[in-house]
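User: structure tokens for this one?
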Amino acid sequence: MNYSSKLVLKSGKVFQGFANASKSEAIGEVIFNTSMVGYQEIATDPGYYGKIVLMTYPLIGNYGVNDEDNESKGIKIAGFIVKEYNDLPSNFRFTKTLAEMFDEANTPILSGFDTRELSNYLRDNGTELGIIANINTPLEECMAKLNSYAENKNLVKEVSTKKRWISRAKNPKFHVVCLDLGTKTSVIKELNDLKCNVTVVPYTTSYKEIMELEPSGLLISNGPGNPANYNEIVELIKTASGNIPMMGINLGHQLIALANGAKIDKTKFGHNSTNHAIKNLDTAKLQIVSQTNQYTVNADSIKNTELEITYMDLQDKTIEGLKNVKNSITTVQFNPDYVLSPLNAEEVFGAFIENMKNFKGGKNNA
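Assistant:
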């Protein structure tokens, strides 16, 4: 076989394959996602910014991509790794192939090797820094780039909106301000469908500026990176707590936990899929959800806080949701995805809307 590209891990492991789109080089943390569909949403999800994503489902590209399902403007991942890439999509909605989309973004797709070996390695050893490079690039050169790679501490800066914008609902009843840490367009659409006007603001927006917009509630969005790197947002949440109903998703969930005195742990290989089973501890119902995270709230650390666990992962018993009843706060680690599970979305956003509906005024207005 005449291989054209390869993946080199920082451990020195090499996987040879084929370049299906851009022949550019890419470096980033290599993670795996077990979803069977949704590759377009994964590629454009700001929560995956800078990651090289391995899809464990063997066939990718078979329904192409379209103009409606992006979770943000453009591709956010550093590279895709797939077992078998399909460049002849069959779907009435498709407007271009996955390779065309990636080529336009100068982002590589690597295929054609035993991805089970790679996914098993990452599962057993944890996620690892890797580089997708031309097959002829010397191993020593690849290793030198990996060893000198400096992690960006502020990934939110790369994906947050640069200026305020508004998404309006028909016959709105509430006004939500979304602090954009890398929000997904599907979240904004779901809030619009629930009669919420949404004002999306940069992550650097101050508490004073948020409150001047007279919101009914504050959404701390999902996004990429280590929550320990965003102390300014934690301080904003502390100031806002009790003064406005809040909801946190993914990174927002973790930052709200930090603001309430909890601690965060980095997972071995994260939760990245559309098929995670969780339990609602308030209703005892079991649910299947989509997840995009590398960090989790430490369960022991919430014991002396005002937080209560609302959802728990059934596989590893990690926390999937929290609430602070006194301060009208709800959070989820998973993605409240209406397409995947309408009941999950209605339940999660419904709790936020109930808090906005019943809020009687902040602690500073008493």
